[in-house]
Write a structure and sequence with these properties.
mainly alpha, 84% helix, 0% strand
């Protein structure tokens, strides 16, 4: 359910683009991101940092798209978000006692420090790759192809990455389950 909630703005963006155009879809993306962020606050009693970061970048790039009537800005948004997340993940190796991955998942699983570091670095590299791939698709193909990639390609690659990560973590999780 959380994953559907997290992809809610992207799904609405996709549907609006298919029915209307990139500018209507962009306006809906801004509104849906705001609803998502506020909705999470109402339901959980706190803001989620990823939603806030996404909302700010959607508002900036989306507004530029609408005001200047140029779709290039909204095409840059996924890259900006992914690269910002990559910087945050890399920065967490040097700032604080725990990496971002350990902060996010550390209460649920116990892993050696080297595994947390590798996992965190893998996510940073994945976000970097996804940002670069978005630019390639955005500027090498038409907008319709980019919108399809934004939903299906990026989501598909994320699922594949999570599955690969699960295989990497499986030996550590088996050891943890047997020790309980």
């Amino acid at each position: 359910m959380k994953m559907l909630f997290d992809f809610f703005p992207i799904l609405l963006f996709f549907a609006a683009y298919k029915i209307y155009d990139i500018y209507t879809a962009t306006a809906i993306l801004i509104a849906a991101s705001a609803i998502q962020t506020i909705g999470h606050r109402i339901i959980k009693g706190r803001f989620e940092k990823a939603h806030l970061i996404t909302l700010v970048l959607v508002a900036i790039f989306g507004s530029l798209t609408l005001i200047l009537h140029d779709e290039v800005f909204i095409k840059w948004k996924p890259t900006a978000i992914n690269w910002l997340f990559a910087i945050i993940f890399i920065g967490s190796h040097f700032i604080g006692e725990k990496t971002v991955m350990q902060r996010m998942m550390g209460e649920n699983i116990t892993l050696p420090a080297t595994v947390w570091n590798r996992l965190n670095l893998a996510w940073a590299l994945f976000f970097t790759f996804l940002g670069a791939l978005n630019l390639y698709v955005a500027f090498s193909f038409d907008t319709d192809t980019w919108v399809n990639f934004k939903l299906f390609g990026m989501m598909g690659l994320t699922f594949v990455f999570i599955i690969a990560q699960s295989f990497y973590l499986a030996p550590y999780l088996k050891d943890e389950n047997h020790s309980n």
